[in-house]
Specification:
Order of helices and strands: HHHHHHHH
Number of strands: 0
Radius of gyration: 18 Å
Number of domains: 1
Structural class: mainly alpha
Helix content: 55-70%
Distance between the termini: 22 Å
Amino acid sequence: MTILIALLLAQAAQHPCVDDAKRLCPGVQPGQGRIAACLKAHKDQLSQACNARIAEFREGAQACEDDMAKLCPGTKPGTERHQCMQQHKDQVSPACREFFAQAMERRGEARDVMRACRGDAQKFCKDVKAGEGRIAQCLKEHQSELSRECAAKIP
């Protein structure tokens, strides 16, 4: 579902690490943490804004790491760990709860973008190769032609 990835990138265009990823990781295929690994490999070259966002993310994720170690030791990442954390959701720290709520909010926003722009992306960008923000750029180039719903979601 490459269109989903492209639409998520369209929403993420305002993320402070997008420009760093384009500059430092050209040609790196998104998915399975490849861009994150590339950024990590170039950590000394990241912009101040990107470094700040990464630090903010790590702080929130650390609260959940501590909870996972305490509540779900030995579980494997993915479904097993998620189910365990769900079983212990009443015992999760407030900081982890807040981190999870923010992640779910971003996920919902991304779904809204996908829903609003799926038809426009298929109509205007069907011949555009997905990846590296090309579909997001295509949608921006067609901003005046987009459906009202999609145009409202694309920054």
